[in-house]
């Protein structure tokens, strides 16, 4: 795990997130904790990652999400060389939808 982010404060934040019970609670909490732009940026990156895993082109992804090619490239780097966090979540979401 990335030791740069492992702090007591981040532990507290993640514990708070894990206490959320449903999507409505997520909206309530994240609207207080984050700016609208931060939430939209996170959701955009998540959509970019999903589209990259579907083998969509950078052009298609940029058109559909509004993400810059730099953002798409950064997300692609995380998918290929990161901690597999995106894939872990995608797999769980896929199982929930089956």
Automatic annotation (TrEMBL):
The family database entries (Pfam families) matched by this protein are listed as: Trp_repressor
Name the InterPro entries for this protein.
Trp_repress, Trp_repressor/repl_initiator, TrpR-like_sf, YecD_YerC
Instruction: State the SUPFAM superfamilies in the record.
Output: TrpR-like
Q: What is this protein called?
A: YerC/YecD family TrpR-related protein
Q: Which organism is it from?
A: Brotonthovivens ammoniilytica
